[in-house]
Amino acid sequence: MALPVLGANPPARRSRFGRTLTARAVLVTCAVALVSVLVTAVVAVPLAVRGAERRDQEALAAQARLAAEVLRTRLDRGRTADEERLIQQLRNQGIDAYLIRRGVVDRSGLPPKLVQRVAQGRNVSARRPIDGRRALVEGRALPGGNGVVLARASATGLWRRVLLSLWLPLLAGLAAGVVAGLLLARRLARPIRTAATAAARLRAGDRAVRVPVEPPDEVADLAEALNGLAAALSTSEGRQREFLLSVSHELRTPLTAIRGYAEALADGVIGPEGTADTGRTVLAEAEHLDRLIGDLLALARLEAADFPLEPAPVDLGRLVADAARTWSDRCAAVGVPFRVEVPDAPVPAYTDPGRIRQVVDGLLENALRVVPPGATVVLAARPAGPDPAAGGVLEVRDGGPGFTDDDLAVAFERGALHQRYRGVRKVGSGLGLALAAGLVRRLGGEIVAGHAPEGGAAFTVRLPADPYPTRTSA
User: Fold this and answer.
1) I need a labelling partner for 168 at 20 to 30 A (CA). Which of 36, 184, 363, 473 fits?
2) Taking Cα atoms as reference points, which of 366, 369, 392, 364 lies closest to residue 379?
3) What is the pLDDT of residues 152-181, one digit of tens each?
4) Can you say how many angstroms the Cα of residue 32 is from the centroid of all Cα atoms in its chain?
5) Distance CA 272, CA 331 (A)
6) For residue 206, what are the CA distances in angstroms to 232, 237, 239?
């Protein structure tokens, strides 16, 4: 069955302009485009003005060269008709012509230094004030102190003409930036809205939702994270359902027995001679029910920050000896040999003796439930290393059926082994190992499951020797 894939349309939501990612991206892009246009104008307009002036200067220089060639042999003859025609043609083009004969200019207006320079045989190309107006000047020196100087007034309104010629391209660039910003913002916002829609559907309980994984990498990472979250929630809820089914089955078993015996007593089916046996059976089932409820409450409270713990320095060897007095008799009653392995020296650890005894009792009860008569149950304590600061280790081993490698991976998950072996061999409520693992971790230690040399399962609990930071989560 194919999983539904989210579309790109997010749920409708009213928002003030500027509060959405799309609006902000458009505003930022518009600002960037406007700044780019202004920077372009600041850089391009002076360049364009200088380019126009340079072209005017080059055109005037070409006119000056041509005039110098025409007048090269005529200036020494005095004023001629050819000179007049040339000067008139230049004047019609807005160019003033000044003729220098033997170092003397034919009319006033030129700066003396400029006249002197041309008379000395040097060409001039510059912008100089002529008759009080700024003008482009091109001077060409001729032999004998002669020369020709052409002057054209600088164009007025050049900046205005350049700006008028550039406003349309600049406006087009600004419009293109706005459009690009809008498209980019919508492209960026679409996967985020898709992820928001997916999160809303996950919150509503839809665990089949999946987000398409698309570039760029950041969006793909977000989609993969949401898909992983949906898969993890689906797996977790499936395990919870299985756990609740297992617990309900375990609760129903003693309740069914208690109810059956209660109905038999009420109907008078059981006579006075069987009342005592019936009472013991009902009491045993009630105690089983009480233990199951106690385990459930302990697991629920284990996640709380105020879970009561009273850690103190403990000799694990003495704790093992105390537990052995209780469990040796219980094991002997069912024909199971019980062995204790402790060193002669103390095994120091820093832990809550009551809670760690609860862990040991739970592990031994699990072992005694599955081992056949004649198989061994071992309770051991030893230092974690040659240094006393390394802490201590507790071991519970048995000669029962043990675990497979797959079992070891889920040994401490609630109800995992119960679900796997129910109806195959004797199982408990499925809570004991999860409770033991949670207690050990809250006590700053670690617990692992493995294979025992006796042929069954081995549980190893490592505890610290020094005070540990307070655990707030199991």
Assistant:
1) 184
2) 364
3) 887 655 566 666 666 777 777 778 777 877
4) 27
5) 33
6) 13, 12, 17
Other C-beta atoms within 10 Å of 228: how many? 10
Provide the 10 A C-beta neighbour count for residue 287: 11
pLDDT of residue 1: 40
Q: How many whole angstroms from its chain centre is CA 118?
A: 75
Q: What is the mean pLDDT of residues 187-200?
A: 80
The CA distance from 342 to 316, in Å, is 9
The model's pTM is 0.47
Q: Which two tokens stand for residue 215?
A: 């570039």
Question: Residue 383 — pLDDT band, cuts 50, 70, 90?
Answer: very high
Tell which residue, 315, 312, 380, 395, has the closest CA to residue 347. Answer: 315
Largest separation between any pair of C-alpha atoms in the chain: 163
Count CA within 13 A, CB hemisphere, residue 417: 26
